[in-house]
Amino acid sequence: MVQERVLPSFSTAQTRLTHDEGLTVYEDMVLGRQFEDKCAEMYYRGKMFGFVHLYNGQEAVSSGVIKAMRSDDYVCSTYRDHVHALSSGVPARQVMAELFGKATGCSKGRGGSMHLFSAEHNLLGGYAFVSEGIPVATGAAFQSKYRRDALGDESADQVTACFFGDGASNNGQFFECLNMAALWKLPILYVVENNKWAIGMAHDRATSQPEIYKKASVFGMAGVEVDGMDVLAVRAAAQEAVARARAGEGPTLIEALTYRFRGHSLADPDELRSKAEKDFWFARDPIKRLANYLIEQNLATQDELTEIDKRIQSLIEDAVTFALDSPEPDPSELYRYVFAEDE
Predict the structure, then answer these.
(1) Per-domain residue ranges of the chain
(2) What is the separation, in whole angstroms, between the first and last Cα of the chain?
(3) Which is the most buried residue in 45, 77, 100, 164, by most CB within 10 A?
């Protein structure tokens, strides 16, 4: 079934973009797409192991939200976390090395694909279990609120973005945490990446209220629906939500209607989704849409975009070389990082 609920509350017309901003967002999206394509290549060549869930098609959500935030804000991800890490500023070298299980990875080779983490970049982790990151992100938002209001730290105005899929919106953590966040007016964005499928279950068949953003109303929380294949629409929604959160006005639930271009994981033959449905969403490729917009609005030239594509390709090849050449974790450090270490 072709699912056509693409009626966003925010549109491209509501956002303003400069030349530099446009190129920054485009580069971030291209980085995510090319990185994931390289991951697929490395996985099928036997260089990468375990479960690997790719983000192709959803780049507008990561770039639109995270690039609307500050570098000291917090990001909490899912098992589909590679691109969230890249958008947060984690170097491609460190992400690729982690996927190869190397000591130079952002999680020291202990986490792998589903457990990327970087304290330096305020990336609170990827999480293998559905909804697992929602309480973690809510806790991060609470500490910002507590430090500012209870301890008088005016610099503690960080906002947290919590990403999760449509399947997570039916889990208990989702409802409990939204209730707490609304009660305490926590500075957090709950970002539902509704890609229509929870592994092999179609979203519309799994929930009594398919329009997830409407669930925010139960908690007196702002809830918006946005076209998750339009990075500028996502960016506009995120900018408003971030401003509200930083001003102490509480959380926002953003439902981004998006689509993954690959199977649930690289082990998924992707036989459940119809060709008609895939073709409908492939035609809405968010990177092509942004490229066309930038050129039409005289915000970039084709030569500039082509140069970005080439530069990112070189960066990713470098990341693969770095990962291949990096050492494995030393067996003598098997139990290291189980507990926090003294500074």
Answers:
(1) 12-322
(2) 55
(3) 77
* Dihedral angle computed from the Cα positions of residues 179, 184, 185 and 189, in that order, rounded to the nearest 10 degrees: -50
Picking from 95, 33, 64, the residue whose alpha carbon sits closest to that of residue 193 is: 64
CA–CA separation, 70 and 131 (whole Å): 24
pLDDT band at 2 (very low <50, low <70, confident <90, very high): very low
Phi then psi for residue 340, to 5 deg, are -65, 145
In CATH, which of 3.40.50.970, 3.30.110.70, 3.90.1150.10, 3.10.340.11 is domain 12-322?
Answer: 3.40.50.970
C-beta atoms surrounding 191 within 10 Å: 30
Handedness of CA 295, 299, 304, 308 (dihedral sign): negative
pTM of the model as a whole: 0.94
Residue 148 CA, chain-centre distance (Å), reads 27
183/322 Cα distance (integer angstroms) = 47
Rounded CA-CA distance 143/184 in Å is 11
pLDDT-derived band at 338 (thresholds 50, 70, 90) equals confident
In degrees, to the nearest 5, what angle opens at C-alpha 203 toward C-alphas 10 and 137?
65
Cα distance between residue 326 and residue 343, in whole Å: 25
Neighbours of 71 (CB within 10 A): 9
The number of helices, as runs of H, and strands, as runs of E, in the chain is 10, 7
Read off the pLDDT band of 329 (50, 70, 90). Answer: very high
Q: Is the dihedral of CA 197, 68, 38, 51 positive or negative?
A: negative
Using the Cα atoms of residue 56, residue 62, residue 67 and residue 72 in order, give the sign of their dihedral: negative
- Residue 213: which residues within 8 A CB-CB, separation 6 or more? 192, 223, 224, 225, 253, 254, 255
Retrieve residue 47's tokens: 């260089």
Is residue 4 predicted with pLDDT exceeding 60? no
User: What count of residues does the chain have?
Assistant: 343
